[in-house]
Amino acid sequence: MKKRLVILGGGESGVGTALLGKQKGYDVFVSDFGTIKEKYKHVLTHNTLNWEEGKHTEALVLNADIVMKSPGIHDGVAIVKQLRAKGIPVISEIEFASQFVQGTTVGITGSNGKTTTAILTHHVLKQGALNIGLAGNVGKSFAGLVADAEYTDYVLELSSFQLDGVVDYKPHIAVITNISPDHLDRYEYKYELYIAAKFRITMNQTADDYLIYDADDETIAMWLQQNKIKATKIPFSLSGNTTEGIYIKDNTIVSNINNQEFTMPINELSLEGKHNVKNAMAATAVAQLMRIRKQTIRESLSDFQGVPHRLEKVLKIQNVQYINDSKATNTNATFFALDSMTTPTVWIVGGVDKGNDYDELMQLVNEKVKAIICLGVDNQKIISAFGNVVDIMVETVSMNEAVKVAQKIAEKGDTVLLSPACASFDLFENYEDRGNQFKAAVQNL
């Protein structure tokens, strides 16, 4: 008898898992409580996969042998509770797909920087002639790539939601870029539950595996003091108080891994900002562990083009620079963005607040921000936090309006920065949609 695989959610990870499940001989059924996008319906129908939308039919879901839950679906929804009550395993796409991979996976998580680090790491390894795919929380689904069987090894960007559904999966190399409060609405507003979710990346690792992490991050340092892990630790630090792993000396990245010393002056990195120095250090550590030549690492770090929607320079109009940082969906990401501003800034902020604490931005806003443009359905928290800090505060309800107001306020030499510090779901489909609308509005000025 075929094992029954039920997939909750008919998006990128759901459809990828359906294709892989069918290929591996499962009886597959996809159930989406919302509506499935036309492009995904076409793939499911074309591959003769059974699916439903707008409901979860209990008789067709609760007879599963195993369930893959898409990362966007909350653990607290009724159907998931019913599955768990019946003892049916509910896992993530990462867990399901990893059992069919023989090669090495590099798993990258963190509250911020994980997308840039994943794409940068993939770039370096690909330049080093590895047959490597990039998946997870970025680009295509991991399961879909495994089904295509094009790649031997994988770089995976892993969100806390994807790690929540991991049972046996272990990356050979794990990276934690940093940890700061995010998605607390999904973790009962308990920071320690979110931290624990991130550290699931190392829970199955052995002494033959590696954990690369930011030694300057207090949350990470404290967790590692209080919890034992088996993986070999490789810290990276800007402060220079570590001489193991990767550190900075005389404005140069110095890395000692596998008895190989690698150095690269910071000013040769293509990405600007302190946070990007850290992202480059993490990518370097992975590349050295994967035995990539030093020259290749150096060239790759100096020619990398950056990530869309992450401090992306859009246009300069009348000597005002417009920057798209739509991917900043929490205050920590926005902290890095504001920290890297060198001119008076008109800041476009707002969206769905995930339990933000704006206090950590106060000093930067005081120093760098001349005006705030709120772009969200409910802006009360932002107004309360910064109303007395900046001279100009404007509420807007569309991206076009926000950009036009910004143009009016900005003077020669200023920067207009979209760095929302919030999720996008009140006015936009997702952060990409928000960033694309920003770029379109700027181009129409």
N- to C-terminal distance: 62 Å
- Gross morphology is globular
Q: Would you state the CATH class of the largest domain? A: Alpha Beta
Annotated CATH architecture of the largest domain? 3-Layer(aba) Sandwich
Q: What's the main sheet like?
A: 6 strands, parallel
Regions with pLDDT < 50 over 5+ consecutive residues?
none
Structure, explained:
By secondary structure, the chain is α/β, with parallel strands linked by helices. It has three domains: 4-91, Rossmann fold (3-Layer(aba) Sandwich); 95-303, Mur-like, catalytic domain (UDP-N-acetylmuramoyl-L-alanine:D-glutamate ligase), CATH 3.40.1190.10; 312-443, Alpha-Beta Complex (Protein-Tyrosine Phosphatase, Chain A), CATH 3.90.190.20. It has 17 helices and 20 strands. It has helices spanning 12-23, 38-46, 58-61, 78-85, 93-98, 114-127, 142-148, 160-164, 191-199, 218-226, 274-289, 294-303, 331-339, 362-368, 380-386, 399-409, 431-443; strands spanning 4-8, 27-32, 50-53, 66-69, 90-91, 105-109, 132-136, 153-157, 173-176, 210-214, 232-236, 246-249, 252-257, 260-265, 312-317, 320-324, 345-349, 369-375, 392-396, 415-418. β7 (132-136), α7 (142-148) and β8 (153-157) form a beta-alpha-beta unit. The longest helix has 16 residues, at 274-289. It is globular.
Give the helices and strands, then pairings.
Elements: E1 4-8, H1 12-23, E2 27-32, H2 38-46, E3 50-53, H3 58-61, E4 66-69, H4 78-85, E5 90-91, H5 93-98, E6 105-109, H6 114-127, E7 132-136, H7 142-148, E8 153-157, H8 160-164, E9 173-176, H9 191-199, E10 210-214, H10 218-226, E11 232-236, E12 246-249, E13 252-257, E14 260-265, H11 274-289, H12 294-303, E15 312-317, E16 320-324, H13 331-339, E17 345-349, H14 362-368, E18 369-375, H15 380-386, E19 392-396, H16 399-409, E20 415-418, H17 431-443
Parallel strand pairs: 1-2, 1-4, 2-3, 4-5, 6-8, 6-9, 7-8, 9-10, 10-11, 16-20, 17-18, 17-20, 18-19
Antiparallel strand pairs: 12-13, 13-14, 15-16
